[in-house]
Amino acid sequence: MNSITYFVVMFFFGIWEVSMAYSAVEEIFLLKGAKTKKYIIIKWGNIFALATIVAKNRMIAFSSRTLVILCVFITFICVSIIVRGKGWTVFGVVALYYIFLTILDFIFSYICIEFIGAKFERIIYVEEYSFWAIGIYSMARIIMGMLLCKLKKESSEEMHIILITYKKIFFITCAFLFIVMVRYQFVLSAMATGEQEIQGVDKALVLTTILTITTLGSFLYFQYVIKIKETKILKFQDQMLRDRCREMQQTRQIAHDMRNHIIFLKKYDDEGREEKLHQYIQDLCQEITLYEMQVWTGIEILDYLLTQEMKKAEQRNIKFQVETQRIDLLPFSDLEIVSVFGNLLDNAIDACEKIEIGERWIHILIKKQHNMFFMEIINSVEQDTDRKSKKGGLHGYGLINVQQIVERHKGEMNCQLMSGEYSVTISMYSKGGV
Question: N or C: fewer beta carbons within 10 Å in the chain?
Fold first, then answer.
């Protein structure tokens, strides 16, 4: 094979592997719909530039840590221009992809060295254009492509949230695999030069086991977190049904006793005992509305959540006001409704508890107009709250999850700290309406 043909083949491999890197990034960070001219230019500019560097490097050296690091940083810089505010997570995803792919190269290299033995150094390291190298690169990239196809079948939206939430564990995994990559690159070189006994199959099995355990472990952990979230919403819905059943039972009891209530009301009215009459009516109204769920939006799970938060606020002497309209559909799933409204309202109640009773209040605005959904939660806060609260410090617990959910639906979320009040606004546009 002549140099031009080999360069073309390596250039093709470069395009293949960098394109798969972007495929992984697009899947995890939900960029499949990003078809802007800027995105396309950056993406394909990155792909062709790195493919050229990869092709030239592999005409000189079979494997290079410097090339891996260069690919990671160049791809990371290009992707960061598009994906704002998630730098470390983007870096972790890109690094994991290239490290994983390089380890796959080593696995097939160990299998190769088992077959050709001491000739490996001459065929792979010395000969400029090796068909064995082409076979190694091909198999590694086929396996990586299959894994990415599997990734696409999973819930990328949930994976996005999990990576943000558990990024420390994710980075530890990346660091571990990088150490494994460096270690087994030295072992491969030692075998190729005869400094170490050839144990290609053994080393290939060890590397395969490490990657399998890492991949399977990550997949199972991912499924575990998803199940936890699903269980949370099921428990919430179960509690909602229990409360509704209790309300219905209470209503039946009140209806059954209504005849006696009317008799007593008539008796007090006939006797002119207005004070007793008013007190009895007041007690009766309180009993009737004790378990009644307020209907604000017509979306049962949201109305139930608002009712529960209102009761919680009233117990803490917080004035709770809801301004909304009937809404046929929200741009959130039930789980997302619980996460968004639950986190924001819990934060608002926590903030109100820190100030004097007479100054505690929460105002909620939920509305839609045509295809635009808008919500705003404003609550009173301490006058001397630190400036860092503008970035979510005051209401930071759970705020990251809320922000990720909003971004997943292509919406906007803004937090603002003003004199004595803190506001969170969420707006989003849906082509299909909300």
Answer: N
In this structure, are residues 74 and 35 in contact, taking their beta carbons and an 8 Å threshold? no
Strand order in the sheet with 421-429: 319-323, 361-369, 372-380, 421-429, 412-418
Residue 234: which pLDDT band, with cuts at 50, 70 and 90?
A: confident
Q: What is the pLDDT of residues 202-213, one digit of tens each?
A: 889 999 999 889
Distance from C-alpha of 289 to C-alpha of 159, rounded to nearest angstrom? 42
Last residue of a domain, one of 198, 219, 235: 198
With beta carbons less than 8 A apart as the criterion, state whether 364 and 377 touch. Answer: yes
The residue segments making up the domain with residue 76 are 3-198
Q: How far apart are CA 11 and CA 143, in angstroms?
A: 19
CB 18 within 8 A of CB 46: yes
Supply the pTM of this predicted model: 0.61
| Rounded Cα gap, residues 152 and 30, in angstroms | 11
> In 3-state terms, what secondary structure has residue 325?
coil
Write down which residue in 170, 198, 226 finishes a domain: 198
Nearest partner of 304 among 239, 259, 254, 250, judged by Cα? 239
State the pLDDT confidence band at 45, using cuts at 50, 70 and 90.
Answer: very high
CB of 78 within 8 A of CB of 43?
A: yes
Q: How far apart are CA 162 and CA 278, in angstroms?
A: 56
Q: How many CB atoms lie within 10 A of CB 210?
A: 16
325 lies in a domain? yes
Domain membership of residue 226 (yes or no) is no
